[in-house]
Amino acid sequence: MAESPFIVRRARTADVPWIQSLAAPLVAQRILLGKENVSVYEAVQEFRIVEDSHGTPIGCGALHVMWQDLGEVRTLAVDDAWLGKGVGHAILLHLEKDARKLGLSRLFCLTFEVDFFTRHGFTEVSDEIIAPEVYAELARSNDEGVAEFLDLARVKPNTLGNTRMLRLL
């Protein structure tokens, strides 16, 4: 088996400025939801970083636990020079492994990259993938990503055109 040209590792606080710089163009295009630095630092333990063989970061992604059985893939981004080379695939495999270790059975994403996620076992879903009582609990969250998931009016400008997708683990 050939050696992988990159490795996947847990993010460190020193990665936050890089995560923000990688995400910035996607935020500007309204592909990703922008996050304040403090929010990324608070969630740094959710992130995985992919490095090339020289230790240079080339991609990232996060797994956010939303409920007992449900997690969300967030901020999955790859450096343009590495698109189509398996970096996103490697991140997603690690996030799925993390989800299983946490006891999650479903992964959600809100994405414009429907083909990528479809190739990885995600399917398009309606807005009603959680019970009404869980919706009521999640509506109490201050997390903007949860608001996106719930399709709340205050995040509508960020989610227009995105596809809601789910994968059963």
TrEMBL record:
N-acetyltransferase domain ranges (all copies): 6-141
Cited Pfam families: Acetyltransf_1
Superkingdom of this protein's organism: Bacteria
GO cellular component: cytoplasm
GO molecular function annotation: L-glutamate N-acetyltransferase activity
InterPro entries membership: Acyl_CoA_acyltransferase, GNAT_dom, NH2A_AcTrfase
Keywords associated with the record: Acyltransferase, Transferase
Entry keyword annotation includes Acetylation: no
Transmembrane feature ranges: none
Gene Ontology biological process: L-arginine biosynthetic process
E.C. designation(s): 2.3.1.1
Enzyme class: transferase
Name of the protein in question: Amino-acid N-acetyltransferase
Species per Swiss-Prot/TrEMBL record: Alpinimonas psychrophila
